[in-house]
Amino acid sequence: MALMTKASDSGMHTEQLAGRTQQRFFRPEEEARFTYPHAFEVDFARRAEIDAADLEPTQINLKLRELMGQGHGTIVLKNPGAKHGIAVGILNRLNLEIQGSLGYFGCGLIDGPNIRITGRVGWSCAENMMAGTVVIEKNAGSTFGAAMRGGDLVCKGDVGARVGIDMKGGTILIGGRAGAFCGFMMQRGRMVILGDAGKNLGDSMYDGTIYVGGSIAGLGVDAVPGEITDVEADWLERKLKLYGLAAPNGVRKLQKIVAGRQLWNYDNLEPAEKKLIL
Amino acid sequence: MCGIAGLIHRGATGDVGREMTAMLQSMKHRGPDSTGYALYGKPHGQELVVRFKLAEGAEMSQGFDIHRQVKERRDEVDRRLAELGATILAAEAATEYAFRYRIAFEGDRRRLANYVEDVDGAEILSMGLGLELIKDLGDAAQVAGQYHLKGFVGTHALGHTRMATESDVDIRSAHPYWAYPFADVAVVHNGQLTNYWNGRRALERRGHRFVSNCDSELIAVYLADRMAQGAKLKDAMTDSIAELDGVFTYLVATSDSLGMAKDVMAAKPMVLYESDRFIALASEEVAIRSIFPHEIDTFDPYEGDVRVWQS
User: Fold this and answer.
1) How many CB pairs under 8 A join A and B?
2) In chain B, what are the domains?
3) DSSP class of residue A71?
4) What residue of B is the nearest CA neighbor of A140?
């Protein structure tokens, strides 16, 4: 319960669920029910390299899987050439360094690996990410971290539009500016934009928290300013430091944006159900 | 989906035919239906380069009489050019149905274009001092090979790989579009315009002609109309952001510049590489990587962004 209180204090989730909606939490004794096929036991001390210059995306991903299957826990991928769909569906621990840039849908559907990309990423990086870390040293395209559920997604440069659209958990950190419609229909999690944010920030967000260090071109429907708590300030300080980032004027000067909750429709009855009652 | 690309060598010339072919071929998956180029070579005084077609490629294998008809159409084009005072300096048949003429002409270019296009099956793809607009069915490798584009040297270029969604798979509906009747202005577009018919009707009432039912043509004609009213290219592009409805990213080129515009939703992709000597833009970074295999910094332009670069 103490953990839940702390999570609520720091803005991780604030919605009060009731009625048919139930909160479910994973229990340690249920671990066996949540194992994946193609999740490998790896040894971080075992290192391998892939030169992707002449490989198609499917070949690159199969090579990654082959190396993980052999127990390699540290892999360096060279010459990715901005190809699409690289390093997707990795469901185990892994230290992966990608030396270069990725195209669309890089690092999507991952659950656990720590990935560092020295270049830029295209649209929809880390879409549906469940856990782990993805750190991009340069810029990123639009729909960064779309529908993300957990883990840390970090871009040290600028990012395009619709960052964290439909985000359901985890943390997105952006060192530079971000485009329009960031946090659109965000449901949970936290997003930190240290530079400027585009228009319609947090449009139709249900929950979660957005922090902005620069100017905001405009708030979306039902996105409203909030107050940073001590717990949040402490969390922000530690989280940014972890990735070598810093708020331009200190974390207390970040603008906090949350849901105004005027659009909440949790647990509303379906039209057919209303007819039955009324 | 469609893929668009642009490049410009600043203060220099380069192998733009080969470079654009590499960029477009790497985006073949975005649209395999047709491929088009707007290549800007070095002008030769006031000589005009006219690219035109007299039939669709698919027509050449249909009917018994098409070859004779194309020959007659070409003879008629030659006659009409002479009638309006144009001197044909060189005439090449790029294919059986597409032609490249170098002409000397000092008269009214709109009248010339209208008179030539009045010939059955004739469509002027481009007319300009440096612009050469080539488009045909197939991927970039096919079109570049068919029209011998890999040796084309110039200052800048646009390109397009098309996935037909709202109009036919034919040369008429392929990009780029020439901003008739402005010499050397061409447009490529990725997206959908939702006020196409309203915009088209308004422009037709102002005397502009459309050769296709492709919404992208509206951008070229819109820019031509705005510039005819005295607007500078960048101002016309800025106005287009508010006046064109829909989701779009487009590139436009003139004799000495390259521009890009992105709608207010930023719904269509564009990646940009910018240096003192070279600008490259494409729907996907993989296209830019096809000519820059070494590490470079790229970024996404933002919503409502309009940029213009000079060669």
Assistant:
1) 71
2) 3-36+138-310 (3.60.20.10), 44-128 (3.30.70.260)
3) T
4) B299
